[in-house]
Write the structure tokens for this entry.
Amino acid sequence: METFKDHNLVQGYKFQEIKYQLKPCLDSNGQPVEGLFNAWIILNNPEQLNSYTTQMVKEVILAFRAAANARNVVAVVFTGEGDQAFCTGGNTREYAEYYAGQPEEYRQYMRLFNDMVTAILHCDKPVICRVNGMRIAGGQEIGMACDFSVASDMAVFGQAGPKHGSAPDGGSTDFLPLFVGIENAMLSLTLCEIWSAHKAYRLGLLTEVVPVLQKDGEFIPNPLVVTNQWVDDRGNIIFGEFLQAEKKSQAKDVIKQCDKDLSLLDQTVERLCTSLMMTVPGCLTKTIESARKHKLEHWDRNRESNRAWLGMNMLTEGKAGFKAFNEGVKGEREVNFIKLRQLLAQGTRWGDDLVEAVMPPRK
């Protein structure tokens, strides 16, 4: 047998904050295939909704390189631990308590983040984002870097940047218009409204959506979302929109009667992996690389200048926004937008006094 060279960046690395697992590929009958695997890269921070720390970012880079180099790996499944979140972006506690006010430190962090996105886009294997829950902010960005996205229909999608003192320049401003068109992308990027999985699928962001709630032994669609295709009197498509407030309480009562079961999600992901296995490997890789060029064209053009801006922003709006999110009470974790605009209009200079003046109520 041929002895291969080891092309991994770090030999024998033991992952600490993510999980890296090899799971046997399944044939069309659901039986394990000898000697072939799918690599599962799992963000393992469920207590903080799988937000990534600096250490986790480093480990994701190493994991994608390991999966890309593994000759017995067919596809990569990128997901999060638990059933609440795939990823909600960067760890805001770390942002607020370390990076806020330190632009050069955050710029170095953003080098790592950019390398994580690039590692996904450069992976020699097809990458499936298994969206087991919230995919928000930076989680949305690393999710869109993947080649496919299979989602729980309880998952939600959105941005956080302009609401929390940043801009979604870690990939969303590059990728989202390619998926959903410039108008829908503009609404999501600026207003940071949350989309249901069904709406995200309707707009072209997802490969497939799968129910995960079981009631009386049967899977049911997300009760919080309109899942029947219909159009209102003004011609607006309502499919995938969240219910109006007066109907939400009843839907939440239904959810309380349900068990959450991700088995269909896993089956759908495995079925896609099997379909990818049943192709010629070199041709599959070349096809994926060619399709990725549309993302890479924008990503490579903007990532370094965006990194520099995001670093400098940690002296002003980023410092205020992340501090507010980290210290504010639940439901009030944003700066006082109106007061901030008023103070800036009056000529108030950025500094600790201005930041403090726009803070929300503390925990």
User: Anything to note?
Assistant: The chain has a mean pLDDT of 95. The chain has two domains: 18-212+262-317, 328-363. The first helix runs from residue 54 to 69. Residues 328-363 form one domain.
